[in-house]
Specification:
The protein has helices at 2-33, 39-52, 56-63, 68-76, 85-98, 105-129, 140-170, 202-205, 232-239, 254-257, 296-307, 354-371, and strands at 131-132, 135-136, 179-182, 209-212, 268-272, 313-317, 322-327, 333-336. By secondary structure, the protein is α+β, with helices and mostly antiparallel strands. Helix 1 (2-33) packs antiparallel against helix 4 (68-76) and helix 6 packs across helix 11 (296-307).
Length: 377
């Protein structure tokens, strides 16, 4: 026990120190870049920052060309970079939380408040600047253009799928080809005041799933129930007559497609392990689009929304339509999707729902044990 406590304390200090050192180096490079010099000379400074940290390959794989904005994003807030300031502060706080009982209140509050303040600062940029895909989301016109672009993209995908299906028919392969149409995630598109994904609302996690298996002989039909994409690979292997590896997660649903079984009683589980590190402003065309910060109340609301995606989340959507979202760092949620499909009434704290919360949490923990999921306890 002592060894584990010492380990957490060491890494809490180490990650805090790493975040501080990175901030100092970035400040030096940034101030140096402001001196009169050629663009090539200034870029050498940002390249040197990556070289010192031995992160050039990781940066190049994600951003390509070395630029000031790219390096600042990568080294400050990119959640995929374990050396970014955001990642280090998160790791420091997680280690502090693991041994919170051994820390003084001042040490814990310093770690916790630093983490919260960083997220509030990111939220101000996310909501205050209000840009996404080059559109100003603080205006109706910008929102309408964003929606139009989204639906235009959907139309483009639909036409491309039509070309693929047409090619299958033209080549005589349609009756011997399984076709699956789905997506890896949805998009909030303004619902709940949010854009993009990174949350557990239905708009983000519920996706289309169309399956055509010609030799099963069924016409178009809707199969009731809930299913997870984790079942797609074992289902395809089963339909193709191939063995399903013992270590493969998910289960075959070919019997459901054949009409020999149903999805009755099937729960769906969702996991989310942190931000993708890209606040909305990083989709614009540069600092020329920066806007004045919003008022304090709006910034606070924005902070709450942005912080909600920073920690690990786990969700279970039961067969009878109840959805439980759990987080170690944020307000848990319970929704009745049948009566509240837009998830507007969080019933987690209702006294009459505590038994349901406990039952769903038990199912979630059982699933974690079954899948060796240790990312959220």
């Amino acid at each position: 026990m002592l060894s584990r406590t010492a380990d957490h304390l060491f890494w809490m200090s180490r990650y805090t120190e790493r975040a501080e050192n990175t901030a100092r180096m970035l400040n030096v490079v940034h101030e140096t870049a402001l001196l009169p010099q050629s663009a090539e000379r200034a870029q050498e400074g940002w390249l040197g920052m990556l070289s010192i940290s031995e992160l050039i390959p990781a940066y190049t794989a994600r951003h390509g060309t070395v630029t000031r904005d790219g390096v600042l994003h990568f080294m400050v807030r990119d959640g995929s970079n374990p050396s970014s300031i955001l990642s280090c502060l998160r790791a420091a706080r997680e280690n502090a939380r693991a041994v919170r009982g051994t820390l003084t209140s001042e040490v814990w509050e310093t770690q916790n408040q630093t983490w919260l303040e960083v997220n509030r600062m990111l939220a101000e940029q996310y909501m205050g600047e209000g840009f996404l895909y080059g559109q100003d989301l603080t205006t109706e016109a910008g929102c309408r253009r964003t929606w139009a672009q989204y639906w235009g993209n959907i139309t483009l995908v639909d036409r491309a799928v039509g070309e693929i299906l047409g090619a299958l028919h033209e080549t005589g392969l349609a009756e011997r080809t399984i076709v699956i149409f789905t997506s890896d995630h949805g998009d909030m598109m303004g619902d709940h005041g949010l854009f993009e994904k990174c949350v557990l609302y239905e708009e983000a996690v519920r996706v289309p799933l169309l399956v055509r298996v010609p030799w099963l002989g069924h016409g178009p039909r809707l199969i009731p129930g809930r299913i997870s994409q984790i079942d797609l690979v074992p289902t395809l292997l089963d339909l193709l007559g191939e063995p399903i590896p013992a270590g493969l997660q998910g289960q075959s649903r070919s019997a459901v497609l054949r009409g020999e079984a149903t999805l009755t009683g099937n729960d769906v589980f969702v996991e989310w392990n942190g931000p993708d590190g890209r606040p909305a402003r990083f989709f614009d065309q540069g600092s020329a689009h920066l806007r004045e910060p919003l008022d304090a109340a709006t910034r606070q609301r924005a902070g709450e929304k942005w912080m909600a995606v920073q920690g690990a989340w786990r969700s279970v959507i039961s067969a009878d339509g109840w959805k439980l979202n759990l987080s170690a760092t944020d307000q848990a949620e319970l929704y009745d999707l049948d009566s509240d499909p837009h998830e507007l009434r969080n019933r987690f704290d209702e006294p009459g729902q505590q038994g349901r919360v406990g039952e769903l949490a038990d199912r979630l923990r059982a699933w974690q044990a079954q899948t060796a999921d240790h990312g959220f306890q």
